Amino acid sequence: MTLLAAEDIVSGYGKVEILHEVSVHVKEEEMVSIIGPNGSGKSTLMKTIFGMVEAWEGRVDLLEESITGVPPHKVVRKGICYVPQERNVFPSLTVEENLDMGAFIRKDDYSGELERVYEIFPALLEKKKQTVGNLSGGQQQMVAMGAAMMLSPRILLLDEPTAGLAPNLAKMILNKIKEINDTGVAILIVEQNAKEALKLSSRGYVLAMGKNKFTGNSNDLLENAEVEKLYLGG
Ligand SMILES: Nc1ncnc2c1ncn2[C@@H]1O[C@H](COP(=O)(O)OP(=O)(O)OP(=O)(O)O)[C@@H](O)[C@H]1O
Ligand SMILES: [Mg+2]
Q: Which atom of ligand 1 is nearest to the CA of 44?
């Protein structure tokens, strides 16, 4: 069943249209990659889905219910969490405090979620009293994703979670994301490490200049000569 559907999204900033009728779908428990060159609108698409940027046209549905125009603080309550590309942690707070912040709208007991985050990211358990600003880039990304997991989302929107990380560390983080996906959380991920992300995903979308350029099963995209040459650094 389709969990998230963004249909024919038109959006932008001020008067500048960035997305020109872009569509993406994510099924329940699916992992889907969005790839494309710098400035192609990947982050804008994530922000539009999450209600941070207004959709001028088109619609966003979660489980066939419209969430078009629903603001972020309400979207999170419906089971969508978003980890932005930048400024996604509170650097002056500890790991533990960041995870608590992730859960701040919860009134119930979230010790189970906390346990699950530390299970997937054991490095964070060791550092739970440390200030996040002092952690490595990879660990800061783990904190950002961990905080998003605190609300037990149905789907995580991840915008370049491996940005700036060395290749082996990026691979490790992507494998962790797959682990989160294997627990039943759907993932919509924007990645520069396009090949690695596609290999872990069932499907992918290539965005170029604010439009859907290619869409397909990951294997088909990985084997497509044009996609390979233009977007996978082939
Ligand atoms: N807040 C903003 N105000 C005005 N223009 C913006 C804003 N954010 C992004 N843009 C413009 O929108 C276009 C798409 O940007 P976006 O960040 O969505 O691309 P992207 O695919 O995520 O790129 P990258 O790979 O560099 O992260 C770019 O031309 C960018 O300059
Ligand atoms: Mg971006």
A: 18
